[in-house]
Amino acid sequence: MDLQEARQRKSELASFIGEVLDRRATASRVEPASADSPAALRAGVSLGLAPQPDGGFGVAVRYRLGVPTARMVVRRVTEHVGPGVDVRRTGRISPAAARPGPRPPVITAQAVGETGRSRPLRPGVSIAHVHVSAGTLGGFVRVDGVLHALSNYHVLVGSPQGITGDVVLQPGPADGGRDPQDRIGALAGFVALEPGSRALVDAALASLEAPEVDLRFPVGAVSTTAVALGGEEVEKIGRTTGITQGRVTAIELDDVVVGYGPGLGDISLDNQIEVEGTGVGPFSRGGDSGSLVYRRPDGAALGLLFAGSETGGENGTGLTYLNPIDAVLEALGAELAG
Q: In which band, very low, low, confident or very high, does the pLDDT at 41 lie, cut at 50, 70 and 90?
């Protein structure tokens, strides 16, 4: 299928899944759920587009372990469509850095990335809100000409209690960062996440007390963006796993349900990008949240890493999820500083 045909098939399957859930609810004598309700999200199934070897697209179907209806829904989908779907089991998806809860950052001693104090600041180092564990400084952006550090909401804000002006540390508290000696700036902007809601991005910015930064990534300064089309070879540098390589295995994934833990609960994100590692290990682990993922070899930014699963992918080490970078920058009113 070409891109438009695959999008149409995806839309049809989304409607089909809604009908399956409604029939199940009726048989169980409970009120059918609307498409936006938490009951519908408990299907545990995400739909997107999967690149095919011939240059076309199939429908990507992802389902989570531990969700009773997920396997039933996937079975119905494959019976309905036939072999033209790319089905993968993802496991539970959690943010790749968090307050105490699922998928906490890998402890400092086991991280191979930059967990220590880094001055000047540079991409890939440990960073976090003063009351969050540790995530990754993804890169630098400008808002109205002023330089800021880019990472995730759950790294720089952490919870609905976080407010603009809160202290941001480098390294993050889980890596020994303390206030005031490791203060590098303050929470300056974010896209709020609401408990039980739907979202498009998990993103936030920190203002910087000192403007001296090192903009370089392993591929040099990243100053351009691109839209993920599927199949791209990608790379990132993160606080936990350092430099890793992967491949985009799905785009335009909707209903990616992420378990944020206490304070936020499960949040469903739409239009996300999926990446699997191409090495022997995972593309990301806990603490890599906030990493900027760029295309190899030209270094164009594709997405902001925010979550992952512990299982799934061809090598069985998990799948990683990204917000499209253009959506992140638009939501924050920012542009890459390259």
A: low
Phi, psi of 154 (to 5 degrees): -75, -5
Pairwise pLDDT comparison (76 vs 125), residue with the higher score: 125
Task: Give the angle 114-290-125 at the CA atoms, nearest 5°.
Answer: 15
Q: Considering the chain, what is the average pLDDT of its residues?
A: 90
What is the CB-side half-sphere exposure of residue 135 using CA atoms within 13 A? 37
Q: Could you please report the per-residue DSSP string of 113-144?
A: SB-S--SSB-TTBEEEETTS--EE--EEEEET
Q: How far is CA 260 from CA 1, 57, 149, 264, in A?
A: 35, 31, 22, 6
pLDDT tens-digit series, residues 81-119: 877 789 998 878 888 644 433 356 887 777 888 899 999
Tell me if the bond preceding 180 is cis, omega within 30° of 0. yes
Instruction: Name the residue with higher pLDDT: 6 or 83.
Output: 6
Q: HSE-up of 86 (CA within 13 Å, CB side)?
A: 24
Spatial contact of 156 and 306, defined as CB atoms under 8 Å apart? no
The 8-class DSSP code of residue 60 comes to: E
Write down the residue that tokens 């941001």 correspond to. 168
- Spatial contact of 261 and 100, defined as CB atoms under 8 Å apart: yes
Give the model confidence (pLDDT) of 172-204 as tens digits.
Answer: 999 999 999 999 999 999 999 998 889 999 999
CB neighbour list of residue 91: distance below 8 Å, 6 or more residues apart: 64, 65, 309, 310, 311, 312, 318
- 3-class SS of residue 54: coil
Tally of residues, the chain: 338
Q: Give 41 or 10, the one with higher predicted confidence.
A: 10
Task: State the Cα torsion 27-29-34-35 to the nearest 10°.
Answer: -30
Chain centroid to Cα 173, Å, comes to 22
